[in-house]
Amino acid sequence: MESIQADRLVKAYGKVRALDELSFGVPTGTVFGLLGPNGAGKSTAVKILTTLSRPDGGNARVAGIDVRKNPDQVRAAIGCVTQKISVDPQATGRENLLLHGALYGMSRRQLRLRAGELMARFDLAEAADRQARTYSGGMQRKLDVAMGLIHRPRVLFLDEPTTGLDPEARAAMWTEIARLAAEEGLTILLTTHYLEEADKLAGALAIVDRGKVVTTGSPDELKSQLRGDAIVAELVDSQGIPQAEEALRRVHGAREITTAGRVLRARVDDGAAAVPAVLAALDAAGVKVGAITVARPSLDDVYLRHTGRTFEEVAA
Ligand SMILES: Nc1ncnc2c1ncn2[C@@H]1O[C@H](COP(=O)(O)OP(=O)(O)OP(=O)(O)O)[C@@H](O)[C@H]1O
Q1: Using an 8 Å Cβ cutoff, are 49 and 157 in contact?
Q2: Where is each ABC transporter domain found (predicted)?
């Protein structure tokens, strides 16, 4: 069964087509990642699925409910953690949870129990009665997620949940998110522009580019569709790029050759075996190489394959 179905969603802002027939489905109880660089359309999709915005075309169902026809019912069934933290810094952690829960018409007794449970679960019990402004960034983000869960939603939307967190807090958040899906059967839609985050957390993901889903599958499925290794040569300066590209074209088995700045990439069947031939070809062309690396296919390669651009290039 699918808890989220987006069917050819279209949204235009003036001339910008933020969503251009975006479609995907999320099986119940899984973590699904919408991965794409800034401006790809992820937030716009989340706004429509959480009923904050209406699509210009297409349709969507969340927890089996039509977002256009029954937005109130959708809102009751979902939790939503947006990019802007909704924690009130002057209130304590517990007060934040109680205030948020009151919006859903929960009884005081229900609320107290649930708030206690969530604070324990997110390791905030000791800090529960301190003002949230005294919390670290990671603690505030956990509180934010706890607030999104107060009314026991069936589907949770997390819009860039770890942006701005340090590596340790990010890892802690990943553990929590994975547990929520595995232990509580929650369906989670996560948007991210971190390749590593999508790779680690998402059972399946959709790569979004310019308002469209360019490919979808589990991280492993997507990576295994790319045969061979990536070989990446960083030149000492960018002037030699045209000659280097030309030289690489003549190396047996090198394909999908792309350049960005002074970095040259190609795909080969066996990376380690191809390195000597690549270095010899570049040397013969008079090109100075600063570094050369071989890598197993990554989601960045998947992105490159489907959009013709590297993720970093677009993010920059
Ligand atoms: N309210 C708006 N008015 C005009 N244009 C908008 C509006 N919201 C989004 N856009 C445009 O729509 C496109 C998609 O934006 P969106 O915020 O959905 O991307 P995103 O992938 O979520 O990126 P980010 O990670 O930066 O939020 C962008 O070109 C953006 O500039």
Answers
A1: yes
A2: 4-235
Q: How far is the CA of 94 from the centre of ligand 1 (A)?
A: 33
Categorize the per-residue pLDDT at 236 as very low, low, confident or very high, splitting at 50, 70 and 90: very high
Q: What is the chain's mean pLDDT, rounded?
A: 92
- For ligand 1, what atom is nearest to the CA of residue 14? 4
Q: What is the pLDDT of residues 274-285, one digit of tens each?
A: 999 999 999 999
User: Of 17, 20, 22, 43, which is best to mutate to test ligand 1, by the most ligand atoms within 8 angstroms of its C-beta?
Assistant: 43
For residue 19, the ligand 1 atom closest to its alpha carbon is 14
pTM: 0.83
- Enumerate domains of the chain plus CATH numbers: 2-222 (3.40.50.300), 227-296 (3.30.70.100)
**Dist. CA 206–CA 222, nearest whole Å:** 10
Q: Where are the alpha helices (DSSP H) in the chain?
A: 42-49, 71-77, 93-102, 108-121, 137-149, 167-184, 195-201, 219-224, 241-249, 271-284, 299-307, 311-315
